[in-house]
Recover the amino acids of this structure.
């Protein structure tokens, strides 16, 4: 297992390097540059040239690339070239907990809904309850998350005034202020995810409930809950985890959009603003962090397999 | 699935005593497995239903029990061994977990006590290094070993009856004999009634005390295993015996398979269901299903043309 993890870590570094390189060059291919975004084409040629030199953008691209990577390997993501020249790492450290809180809470809410819903739908197949779950899952898949977020604001914040509509309060200011600001966006973020998971649990369970070993478990006279939870569910979970790993990407992507609806200054906001401003170092740094999150979540999925299915073992 | 009511099993009635081995024999689709599942009430509703009848275990009608009481019978008073040892064990649970759970559920054993008994059970069914095996998962075990583990599970709660549905069909021939011998021996020693469901007449001859031959959901002949071999009294039984290669017969007597295939249960022939494939069939065979009638002591057959049977019996 240790050898496997080391191999995976090396792979992760390569993936992140590839992503960073791709983003580095794509940013420079995209029309417009930081100068244009800052000066709105108002500056004269001399001023533009001075700024280009100051930002190091007059150097050949491969020199910029090598320079950036040299700094990254030393743990320095550079400074924002916009406004306050804030270090990129500082901007990310500020934004990351917000996005992780949002995605994490969305993930938990999604699972709390999806697992029982999927189990109920599978065990009460073709009943009213199953139809309710299927309808809700269909709705969850079809609704754009930003629209659902706006709907939640209208109903629970503006209408009922139960929860705040926008903003973010760090956990250090207390649990309730933190969670109350996150509930609505987390629901918006998690809905699609939970719909996908619920449907997959349902179909996975239906598949497993047909197997011989479930019939054996019934013939042993186990209680229904032991048959469902101990014998069927772990087996149904194996394909679900694969899907969940992929759908986690969707959860993060949703978080980026939903942050904007709820005015949460998270990683998504940072990324979108810095792309609009052609803030090269910030975009590069933020994408690097996002790719790290993805690589890590994939690794978690692969390790989870071994915990659930004893047949899956990496290098013995 | 086409619509319609399939009478998978019709008018089937038999009994088993403790320490006795009874076989149910028939082709695929003759209703053997449904009979077994019906005893345990595992034919899933609303797809399958027992319309009429009784399943008596020690005088108690299992069909009258509520779901909870029936659950306590399954695995406790009736153990079951299934056909496919490769797929009958849960791949994500250890052998120990799967072997002890019924004992903890039905006998209320503590995990420690259940584990100790699991070790004994594995030794009983001839699995070496039981402690190590209990920690392993099904994919570590061979087919024969898995079936031994299944037998240990069926025995774990000291049942009165074990139903084995084609217990050896999926196994190598050399392993088949070991497993059958083990089951017969254990049931005799532990005074458990054993129902073996099989299509294999060789199994019947060696291990069963009494035999029920099923065709299209009905019992067409029953008697002791030796009676059935010495004096088969139904055209179908004779057909079955003639279609098995036998070493004890001269090589120049050809095997004689039964022509045709088992009937579609949605469209059973009128009268005797075996009629279209039967050499002795007469017009009156189409009028009513023949009832089981005694041909000798404890030997019954359901055929109208018994008196002409002699012509079919192989030399």
């Amino acid at each position: 297992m240790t050898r496997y993890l080391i191999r995976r870590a090396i792979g992760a570094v390569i993936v992140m390097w590839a992503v960073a390189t791709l983003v580095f060059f794509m940013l420079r291919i995209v029309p417009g540059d930081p100068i244009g975004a800052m000066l709105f084409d108002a500056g004269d040629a001399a001023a533009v040239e001075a700024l280009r030199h100051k930002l190091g953008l007059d150097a050949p691209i491969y020199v910029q690339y090598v320079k950036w990577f040299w700094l990254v390997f030393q743990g320095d993501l550079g400074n924002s070239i916009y406004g306050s020249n804030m270090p990129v790492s500082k901007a990310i450290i500020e934004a990351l907990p917000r996005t992780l809180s949002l995605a994490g809470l969305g993930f938990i809410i999604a699972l709390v809904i999806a697992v029982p819903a999927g189990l109920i739908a599978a065990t009460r197949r073709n009943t009213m309850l199953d139809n309710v779950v299927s309808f809700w899952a269909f709705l969850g898949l079809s609704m754009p998350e930003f629209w659902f977020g706006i709907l939640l604001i209208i109903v629970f914040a503006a209408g009922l005034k139960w929860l705040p509509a926008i903003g973010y309060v760090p956990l250090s200011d207390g649990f309730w202020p933190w969670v109350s600001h996150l509930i609505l966006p987390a629901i918006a973020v998690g809905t699609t995810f939970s719909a996908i998971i619920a449907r997959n649990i349902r179909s996975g369970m239906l598949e497993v409930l047909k197997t011989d070993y479930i019939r054996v478990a019934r013939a042993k006279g186990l209680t229904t809950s032991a048959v469902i939870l101990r014998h069927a569910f772990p087996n149904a979970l194996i394909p679900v985890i694969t899907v969940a790993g992929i759908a986690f990407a969707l959860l993060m992507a949703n978080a980026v959009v939903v942050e904007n609806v709820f005015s949460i200054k998270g990683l998504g906001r940072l990324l979108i603003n810095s792309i609009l401003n052609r803030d090269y170092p910030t975009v590069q740094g933020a994408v690097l962090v996002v790719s790290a999150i993805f690589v890590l979540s994939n690794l978690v999925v692969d390790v989870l397999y071994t915990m659930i299915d004893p047949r899956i073992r990496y290098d013995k | 699935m086409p619509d319609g009511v399939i009478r998978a099993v019709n008018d089937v009635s038999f009994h088993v005593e403790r320490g006795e081995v009874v076989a149910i024999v028939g082709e695929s689709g003759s209703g053997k497995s449904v009979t077994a599942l019906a005893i345990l009430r595992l034919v899933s509703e609303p797809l399958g239903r027992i319309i009429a009848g009784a399943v008596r275990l020690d005088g108690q009608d299992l069909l009258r029990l509520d779901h909870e009481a029936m659950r306590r019978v399954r695995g406790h008073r009736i153990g079951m061994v299934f056909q496919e040892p490769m797929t009958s064990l849960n791949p994500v649970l250890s052998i120990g977990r799967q072997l002890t759970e019924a004992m903890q559920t039905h006998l209320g054993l503590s995990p420690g006590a259940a584990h100790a008994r699991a070790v004994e059970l594995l030794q009983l069914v001839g699995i070496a290094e039981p402690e190590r095996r209990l920690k392993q998962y099904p994919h570590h075990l061979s087919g024969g070993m898995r079936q031994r583990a299944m037998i240990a599970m069926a025995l774990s709660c000291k049942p009165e009856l074990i139903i084995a549905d084609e217990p050896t069909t999926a196994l190598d021939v050399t392993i088949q004999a070991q497993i059958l011998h083990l089951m017969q021996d254990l049931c005799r020693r532990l005074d458990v009634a054993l129902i073996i469901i099989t299509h294999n007449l060789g199994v019947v001859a060696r291990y069963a005390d009494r035999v029920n031959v099923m065709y299209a959901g009905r019992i067409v002949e029953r008697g002791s295993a030796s009676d059935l071999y010495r004096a088969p009294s139904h055209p179908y039984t004779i057909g079955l015996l003639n279609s098995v290669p036998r070493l004890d017969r001269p090589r120049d007597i050809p095997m004689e398979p039964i022509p045709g295939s088992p009937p579609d249960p949605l469209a059973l022939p009128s009268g005797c269901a075996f009629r279209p494939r039967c050499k002795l069939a007469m017009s009156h065979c189409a009028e009513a299903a023949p009832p089981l009638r005694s041909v000798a002591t404890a030997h019954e057959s359901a055929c109208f043309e018994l008196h002409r049977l002699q012509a079919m019996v192989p030399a």
Summary: The beta strands of chain B are 21-25, 56-57, 60-61, 78-81, 161-165, 193-198, 210-215, 218-224, 293-296, 299-301. The radius of gyration of chain B is 21 Å. Residues 222-247+254-315 of chain B form one domain. The longest strand of chain B covers residues 218-224.
